[in-house]
């Protein structure tokens, strides 16, 4: 008897589940399916997108003001041989301080050290791009002739 009841329940529920699976989709599902089909048929090309500038690209400057030296004492450079020189490159930061000094042409370790120590103490009014302080590169050469 229990077996018959179980089969009766299964046979009554199975046609309901089969009908639910084969029933017509709702209007929302039809619209969604049509929209998906429409989007998949549309071609998307890279040229359809607007170019976005990279974050590192600087804006063009209409009004540029170079850095102004405020305090740039001489390093008391004394080369070992007459005619030797020290060339140095550095960054003038937005704070007006010298950053990342780099010896381009050396006259020996003691002279290079003295020049780097002195240049690190230099102060500038920073360069501006459209009125906004910006970093710039500075290069200078010391020699005795």
Entry summary:
33% of the residues lie in helices and 27% in strands. It has 145 residues and is α+β, with helices and mostly antiparallel strands. The protein has a domain at 64-143: 2-Layer Sandwich (TolA/TonB C-terminal domain).
Question: Can you offer a commentary on this structure?
Answer:
The protein has a domain at 64-143: TolA/TonB C-terminal domain, CATH 3.30.2420.10. The strands form 3 sheets. The protein has a 3-stranded antiparallel β-sheet, with no helix packed on it. It has a 3-stranded antiparallel β-sheet with strand order 4-3-8, covered by helices on one side. It is built from 3 helices and 8 strands. β6 and β7 form a beta hairpin. It has helices spanning 2-22, 27-41, 109-120, and strands at residues 64-65, 68-71, 85-92, 98-105, 123-125, 127-129, 132-134, 136-143. The chain has 145 residues and is an alpha+beta fold.
In order across it, which strands form the biggest sheet? 1-6-7
Report Rg.
38 Å
Q: How large a portion of the residues is in β-strands, by DSSP E?
A: 25-35%
| Distance from first to last alpha carbon | 120 Å
> What is the multimeric organization of the chains shown?
single chain
CATH architecture of the domain at 64-143: 2-Layer Sandwich
- CATH topology term of the domain at 64-143: TolA/TonB C-terminal domain
CATH structural class of the domain at 64-143: Alpha Beta
Tally of separate helices: 3
Morphology: elongated
Under CATH, the homologous superfamily of the domain at 64-143 reads TonB
Q: Provide the helix percentage.
A: 25-40%
The averaged pLDDT comes out at 76
